[in-house]
Every structure is written in C-alpha cells, then in structure tokens.
TrEMBL record:
Name of the featured protein: alpha-L-rhamnosidase
Alpha-L-rhamnosidase concanavalin-like domain boundaries: 303-401
Alpha-L-rhamnosidase six-hairpin glycosidase domain ranges (all copies): 407-749
Molecular function via GO: alpha-L-rhamnosidase activity
Source organism: Candidatus Borkfalkia ceftriaxoniphila
Keywords: Hydrolase
Amino acid sequence: MLKIQHFTVEHRIEPLGLDEERPAFSYRLESDRRNVVQKKMRLVVRQGENTVWDTGMTESGETLYHIYAGAPLAPCTRYDVKVHAEDNHGDTASAETCFETGLMPRISPVKAQFVTHGFEEENLCPVLCKRFSCGKKVRGARLYASALGMYDLMLNGERVGDLYFTPYWTSYRYALEYQTYDVTALLREHNELEMTLADGWYKGELTWLRKKNLYGDRLAGWLELHVCYEDGTTEKIVTDETWQSRQSSIISSLYDGECQNFCAEKGETRPARVYAHDTGILVSQLNEPVRRREILKVKEILKSPQGETILDFGQNLTGRVEFRARGKKGQKVVLRFAEVLDRYGNLYTDNLRTAKATDTFILSGKEQTYAPRFTFHGFRYCEVQGADGLTLEDFRAVAMYSDMARSGRLETSDEDMNKLYENQFWSNRGNFLDLPTDCPQRDERLGWTADAMIYCRTACTNFNAYLFFRKWLKDVAHEQSTEYGVPHIVPNPLEQTDSAAAAWSDAAAVIPWVLYRVYGDRRILEEQFGSMRGWVDYVAAHADRDGLWKSNFQFGDWLALDMDEFSDRTGSTDKYFLANAFYLNSARIVCDAAHVLGRADDEKKYRALYENLLSAMQREYITATGRMVSETQTAYVIALCFDIVPENFRQAFVERLSADIKRRGHFMTGFLGTPFICFALTDNGRQSLTDLILRRDKYPSWLYPIRHGATTMWERWNSRLENGDFNPGDMNSFNHCAYGSVAEWLYRRLAGIEEIEPGYRKIRICPVYSAGYYDYSRGTVTASDEVSPVYMEGIDRVKGTYESVYGEISAETDYKEGVLRVKIPPNTTALVVTPDGKEHEVGSGSYVFTFGSLR
C-alpha cells in the first residue's frame, strides 16, 4: 500500500504566518513494497472554494520542492493543499495539508506602529497594555507580534503561545522577525492584552565587553491582532498611541539572570508613546521557535562545604529551573547556576567570567509556578538559597532550544561510543537556541562562525536543521561586506570591521553547500550564492601575486595541543597554509554551486581559481620530496582531506601522519584538524588508528571528559585536570559543540550512512569495520624494555538511523552474526557495501545481507 506522509510547506508542517510568495511543497512516500518510485503526481492549492493552482496529473518522479506557480498569494489567508501520487506499481495515495500566509510586509504595508513605554528609566521590564472588547462571536483570531527587545504576551491572564525569547536575535539593522499566534481560544467579550518587554539581545549587555544598547537605547513593542467574526466582518487591534504602559516587577539580564518580585504592587499607568522605527524590516519568523523541551527531575540533593543546598540534575543543559510552591509572602528564593562543582563540592563559576547566572524570586505566598521569563542559563547544578518550607524535589530543570525535529540516532555495543554520541547531542541542544552559539553559560553565547561551520554537518544529522541554518545564513549575508568580508561572529556585536579569517569566514560558503547536500534544496544555493561568491572574491582580492592568501589575523588550528596555549592559542600548523586550504575548499564549493545553478561563466571562473590555487599551494607548502613545510598532524590531515596532496605523495603523507599518532598515542589537533582526523585515517586505510584515538580515555581524547563525569562536550581537551582542578585559561566552557563534530564520522563511517546524491536521493551504506587496535598507553614493559601493548576489542554492533527528506534510512551491522540490515525509503536507491567488500545496488525497501562473522 502506498501512503503519503510528512506533507510540508517550506519545510514545515501546516505553518502559520508564512511570508514566502512562492512556497515549496514536499512529501514522503511510504510503501510495503520494494523498489518504489513515483511516476505521476498532482498538486492542487485552494483558497476557500477557489482553486489558485493546479498542476494537473503530471509525469514526475520528484516528491520534493514543488514551487508554487499559481495566482499571487494574499496576506493573512489560509490555503488548503492536496497532493495525489502514483507509483511504478500503479498504487496511488493522497494527502492534504494547509498553510496560512503572514502579513507579507514586502507586498502589503503593516498598519501597526512601534510603541514604547512612558517612563524615563528602563531598570524594570516595561509592560504595554491594551483593553478592548469583542462585541460579536469570534470565528478566528491571529496575533502578529515583534519587539525591539524581547517580549512575551498575556491575553486575559493566559500566556500567549509556547514560544520563548521572541523575537530572537537577527542582524536587527536589516531584519526583525515577527511571530504569528492563533489566539482564537483566548478571546472573551472583554479582553486585556499585555506585552512585557526585556532588553534581550537588542539593548542588553553582550559579549565579555558587556556592550549595552548595541542596536538601540529604547525598548518598543509592535503588534497586530486580527479578529474575524462569524458574520464575516473583521477588526484589527494594533499598537498605536491608544496603548497604555506600566512597569513590571522584573529585572532581567541575559548573562546575570532575572529578579521577579511577586509582592510588588502594580505600578502607575502612563500612556504609551509611538516610537519611530522602520517597519519595513519586519519578516516572518524563518526557523523553528525556542520551546521548553526535556524536563529533568532533581537527581541528587547535595550540601556544599559551606552548607549550601545544591541540586544536581544529572545533565549539563541550557534552559532554566522552574519550581511550583506556595512559600511565605515575601520569602526570597535565590538560584545560582554552574556547570560543574569544584573538587570540594562548591559551585564552580570562574568559567562564567562576569556572568552572574542568578535568578531571584520574591514569593507571593500563593501556590504558583516560578520561572524566569527572559533569560536562560547553561548548568547542571543549581544552588538554592532561602528555600525553607519548599519541597526541593519539586524543582525541575527545563531544557530550552530551537524546536527542530530529530533526524539521527546512533547506538552501538560500546557504551563509551554511546555516551560520546549522547554528549555531543546534548551540546547540540544546548548551543542551538535560535542561533549556533559557542557556549550557553558565560558572558558570550555568540554565533561564532567557525563553530557553526565545523559542526554544521553533524547538526544536520542530529536534527532537521535546514531552517535553523537558513535563518542564520541570511544574517551572515547581512553582516558581510565587500570591504571587510565575513565577520568572526554573526550577528556581529563586536562591530569589528577587520575580522575576516579563514575557516571562521568560510562558513559563508561551506554551510550552504552542506545544506544542499543534506536536504537537496537548491534554493539555498540560489539565496546564498552572492554571499558564497563574495567571500571567495574577498580572499582573492587580498591574495598575493602567486594567488596565495597571506594576510589578515588568523585563528589557525585554534587550541591545538602542539603549541603552549598560554603563548599562542593558534597552534603550530602554518596559519597561512590553513588559510589557503580553506580558501581552496571554498573556491571548489563555489565552483560546484555554480554548476548546480547553471551559472557556466562562474563555474569556469572558480574552477580556474581552484586549479591555480591548488598548484600554488603545492609549490609553497609541499617539498619536492613530498614533505609538508608544516610538519603537524593537522597539516597532514587537511592536506589529505582537502585533496591538496599530489596523488604520488598521498601514501607518504598517510605514513607520516600515522607514525606521529603511533609515536604519541593520541592526536594533537585543534578546532580545524579535529573534525577531519578520523576521516583522514579511515579513508586512507588506517582504521586501527581511528579506533586508537577514538577509544582512548586518557588525556587528550574524546573519552577523557567522559571519565571525568562530562555529560556534554568540552571546549578544551582538559577543561578539567586529572587532579580535579580546572584549566586555568579564561575560556573553559563545559558545553561546546566543536569537538562533537566527531559524530559526523560516527554517522557516515561507523554506521556507514552517507549521501551520494543531494538529499540522499542515492545513498551509500558502507559501515566501517572496527576490528580493534593495540593500545600502547595500556601496555606493559617487557624484560627487553619494549612495550607490550594491550589489544582492545572492536565494536560488535552498530545501528544508525537517519530521517532524510525522503524518509527513514537505517543500517544495522552485527559483526558477530555477520549480518547487515538496511532500510531504504521510497523514491531513492542505495549502493550497499558489506564489510566483506561486496557491493549491492538496491531500490527502496528492507534488506538483510550476510557477510560471515568477523568476531
């Protein structure tokens, strides 16, 4: 039987407030047959009784990204969509969905104005208020809202929606998102609407420099409420000079936390004032909103040496602590947060730098839930002061992050690998709160471009991150300039104009290409091509006569272990070798993107640039005898993975890299080498060395943090030292995605799931056999002073699943049974390579392949 599932509009299920003028429709086929492909399809879009687009029954094998080509879409309008599909077996299926357009400000100017409060000071979060009546029966109501600052909404005493930290952080000078809410069920005959504002990213303190009022020095709200009555009439309530304002009892800071006084009386009411600000920058929210996700109970109640009560939630996360209590009126409860405890059992907060990470509540004496509204913390531990009479078991930690659908899962017979995978997944959660951040806890929490570039592919396997990155890439393009390139951080609160750097700025080219390869939507290349090309052109303009880039500040192989970090954090690898390697990679990507887009002249231009640059790099950085000028692990890894090494020298490069790892027993790589080192070894026949570095549990290694209690990925290989003390550096996050990029290797090599064609239209299933390895670090010294290494067994079983845009792909390999079980979704094909090297071309369906036990 044929079924249609996951019918989406612009990568979303039944979206509200869509501003796309030509949205794309996609769906997945499901069938109990094998070798299923679509042969025909029909899409029909209706507005009420009127058909606005009908493709007719069309010969088509494509289930993805059918671009709307009907009559112009109207703002604030519901459209119903139906698809009918027929496969190669003659089976048919239908499905329906709907979407609702937003305000579409580009084609229909908005009516509401920004309004601000009537007070001089903004120490307390202001509240904008409006009372209104609905004199007739309401059929439906939509509320569109945004703010200069953060906002949340209350309608008749009920919180509007389940979104947090709206309207999120964009490059506010160019774009400001608005959100759409269905408030039909909240409306009464007489209504009161409140919008509370907080500094947020708009005017709050940002970065370790605590820069304030970066985008403006005044909070303001913007709102339109559209009410449709049963008799067909409509009414709009908008922010204007008729609104009132008052001060709340909330003081809020992103870094320092929040104070709420529930005993305070409501302050005086003053007329709100219209605030002049361009409404032309308003855009409908592009990505998934931040929501409350996992809720964790207290795992253990601890006492510090000073007698403070500390709640251990058992997991480092990003979010907040909530508790429901009555307490005494005026009782003061203070919550302080930390990721770790020191070796004596105290909260360790030095790594927060200037961030106070403290929430304070003055209780009302009534039974209610207490939680901050405009801040979040990175923490595992919460110190509670003033909790007399409260039940500590009623405290909950709530993880909060962008509500992306989970895509990938990985499970092995090795608990260390499972924990490593789980830890990187929690770091993904914690650092994807609307934009890809470096860390969620200290006075930073910024969109560092290298962190995003390094981790993007892994994130896209963990989650459906297409919309998440699409939104952020628009800000990359906004912050980019011909004169200064792409900044280190996006959005750019440092306002640096000379901050272009290799790998960091290469995010502009790399991430759109990753999104295209993973999701198969070429529109991301169309949208970002100007930015991608612009970055490569910037570097070309700063290159020397040989075409090599040898200027600008470079981060190098950040935090690599082959250089004393206190003298130089950029590592020993030649920084300009790395700069040119990533320049070369971006030039190739732009060439490939031009080919996909049919831009023949650009393809020719950037192919020539790539070839000339490759030749120049080989002359500059590789000797005539086949040695790297920069003899580091990262240099060899990048040369191998970026195909810089001439083929006749490849084996020599592999041998030198292997010899260095064997000699040391571990890697020495930093931010740029680490994501590629497992690929460099595995793809060049050195899987035993991949096993060695991947499963080592002494410093430095991926498992060292796990042995020391980590539940997320660390910023440094030794954020915590063997003796329980902490790395003395001023950057010491215990929740950092970058080194979690190893999960890309776990998915693509260990589980063996990889795309051959964009979107996984054609799939390669080729699990890498983990046969085991000799661990010299565990060895014993023989009588002849030689080390007798300990043999470490390989991994017996690996199962990976990935929810692609076509459907679920799975590969489960059992090396003891000698069995590979595979599932391939309809409308795709796969090349399955079993561990004995045999290749099998298959269509959709479930298959079992045997290859003989390898254990």
